[in-house]
Amino acid sequence: MSKLTHLDDKGAARMVDVTQKAVTEREATAEAVIRMAPETLAMIIDGEHPKGDVLAVARIAGIMAAKKTHELIPLCHALNLTSVKVALTPQSDPASIRVEATCKLAATTGVEMEALTAASVAALTLYDMCKAVDRGMVVEQVRLLEKKGGRSGHWQTDS
């Protein structure tokens, strides 16, 4: 099996060759948080946003982004995802929406980038849909929470 690296023997960038790796069930969960004005959050929760159900649109955007990660992140493998879930949870203190994305598949490579992309794009979609009423929103805390499967096994953040 070749070294798992994005560099070839001459130091040039390449896609990692995962041909000889075993197919295993893999899962990754990532999050992003978008902070906003309390009035913006109330508008979203109460269903009074002028653009409609922004949470539904953000959820679909996150799912679609996970499926297109290989088109957005150089050298990522095109993956046949078996499940993508995007949950959006409003939080009052501070006024924010927590986006949690979980991706699953059975393959020779993991799905961390797909989960991170889904969470990021869902948060950015919320920003895009709400920027007319709140330009001060902040997307933050994009991070991997947990990954399961593959050669490196299970990993989970401490916080």
UniProtKB/TrEMBL annotation:
<dbReference type="Pfam" id="PF01967">
    <property type="entry name" value="MoaC"/>
</dbReference>
<dbReference type="GO" id="GO:0061799">
    <property type="term" value="F:cyclic pyranopterin monophosphate synthase activity"/>
</dbReference>
<keyword id="KW-0501">Molybdenum cofactor biosynthesis</keyword>
<dbReference type="InterPro" id="IPR023045">
    <property type="entry name" value="MoaC"/>
</dbReference>
<dbReference type="InterPro" id="IPR050105">
    <property type="entry name" value="MoCo_biosynth_MoaA/MoaC"/>
</dbReference>
<comment type="subunit">
    <text>Homohexamer; trimer of dimers.</text>
</comment>
<feature type="binding site">
    <location>
        <begin position="75"/>
        <end position="77"/>
    </location>
    <ligand>
        <name>substrate</name>
    </ligand>
</feature>
<comment type="function">
    <text>Catalyzes the conversion of (8S)-3',8-cyclo-7,8-dihydroguanosine 5'-triphosphate to cyclic pyranopterin monophosphate (cPMP).</text>
</comment>
<comment type="pathway">
    <text>Cofactor biosynthesis; molybdopterin biosynthesis.</text>
</comment>
<keyword id="KW-0456">Lyase</keyword>
<protein>
    <recommendedName>
        <fullName>Cyclic pyranopterin monophosphate synthase</fullName>
        <ecNumber>4.6.1.17</ecNumber>
    </recommendedName>
</protein>
<dbReference type="InterPro" id="IPR002820">
    <property type="entry name" value="Mopterin_CF_biosynth-C_dom"/>
</dbReference>
<dbReference type="InterPro" id="IPR047594">
    <property type="entry name" value="MoaC_bact/euk"/>
</dbReference>
<dbReference type="InterPro" id="IPR036522">
    <property type="entry name" value="MoaC_sf"/>
</dbReference>
<feature type="domain" description="Molybdopterin cofactor biosynthesis C (MoaC)">
    <location>
        <begin position="15"/>
        <end position="150"/>
    </location>
</feature>
<feature type="binding site">
    <location>
        <begin position="113"/>
        <end position="114"/>
    </location>
    <ligand>
        <name>substrate</name>
    </ligand>
</feature>
<feature type="active site">
    <location>
        <position position="128"/>
    </location>
</feature>
<comment type="similarity">
    <text>Belongs to the MoaC family.</text>
</comment>
<dbReference type="GO" id="GO:0006777">
    <property type="term" value="P:Mo-molybdopterin cofactor biosynthetic process"/>
</dbReference>
